[in-house]
Amino acid sequence: MDNFLQQKHDILSKNDKSSIGKWDTKIVKLCRKINKSENYYTTSSCSGRAALIIDETKKQKGLFIKLYHNLLEFEDLKKDLIEAKKIKKDVRFKQEAVILHVACKTLNDAVKLLKKSQLAGWKRAGIISTGKRIVVELNSTEKLEFPIIENGKILADDYFLKIIVKKSNENLKKSWEKIEKLEKLI
Description:
The chain has helices at 3-12, 28-36, 74-85, 107-119, 158-185; strands spanning 40-46, 49-54, 64-68, 91-96, 99-104, 124-130, 134-139, 144-150, 153-154. By secondary structure, the chain is α+β, with helices and mostly antiparallel strands. It has one domain: tRNA wybutosine-synthesizing-like (SSo0622-like fold), CATH 3.30.1960.10. The strands form two sheets. It has a five-stranded antiparallel β-sheet with strand order 3-2-4-8-9, covered by helices on one side. A four-stranded antiparallel β-sheet has the order 1-5-7-6, with helices on both faces. Helix 2 runs parallel beside helix 5 (158-185). The two termini are 25 Å apart.
């Protein structure tokens, strides 16, 4: 078995270390399609999400208060914010776009994937590693991030929370459309 195929086998046989412990349902078909190719394999993926996060400068365990991998509902967000106030820490709202890391067998394979991702509307894409393996990062640009609880006070009224839900859902839908477009091009 060549080195690339051995790396692929090793990576794809590992347990999932993501925060949800499995692939997002919205991106699993794309990942499976990529992983069927002998020239590519996925190393990490997220179809996009929203989250309530304790506002800390350092990444550490336990920062996520609530993760949403589906469309947001106003009532759920409101209820979760009321619960988050009890933590007595400042909280950020964060809605992130789709992101995908793909190891490529050759530089030419990486360029082919980059071109397809651009055709599918992924705005940020590039080769992020050429060391032990060539890795392409595909990322979209639809995101929101801002403080939402400070000193135990929710900073947004219901009107603004409804705008947050609407905009986040629009962004997530755009990310999911890009996943589907790329899947069709691969």
